[in-house]
Request: fold
Amino acid sequence: MADLLLIPGIGGHPHFHQALVDGLSRHHRVHTAPHGDFFSQPFAGLAPHTAYWRARLQAVETDTLTVVAVSFGAHIVPGLLQAAGPAVRRIVLISPWLPRMPGRLALALTGAVPERIAAPWLARRLMRWSEDTGDAAAIAQMRTALYDDPGRVAVRWHRRLLAIRQGLDWTQLDRLARTLPVDLVFGQAEMLGRLQRAPADALAARHPHVRVRHVAGGHEIGQQWSPALAAAFDAILAGE
Reply:
């Protein structure tokens, strides 16, 4: 079986992507973990996240692997691969935020508000929105089981969002994509994917080494795995 490193989204824990983990595990050894600040004080910026996942990458005992990163996790990848470690054969970014993404101005304004005020408000809004994109009861149950102090959770979400408010670093990603395949994957039912369909296709047209895929499912693929998703990811990971 081939090896695969899965970097979770803004929720911070791979359990929020359990359907994806289980689906990918059919043909891959999936290496994953919570974000480095999940059980500690929230990180500020992308740099400590990148250092943490670079160490996870280097710890995988294999010659080659595929990196699959979800939403917030996708923004860690461009800086992740600038070090020694297993040779990455493919990058798959699920529901990334592209440059000039919708909501960028709102995030910039939020960054000007003191964290103690902005973090609880932003976390509540995002949690309600994410529950609307999947199985609300299952998501709420996982949060109850996994999240510790609500204030610290809110600060984590707030800092992660501010860290990616400029969108994906396309210049860095483009350099990587000149030497290995990159797939941008959006769920057909996700609002973010619909809003970003035109800019994603335009970017891919300018950079033919990048492919844009629209697959069955919602934001971050969602909590359900299906034969259609299985077929789509089999094709993506096979380079078809």
Observations:
- The two ends are 18 Å apart (CA to CA).
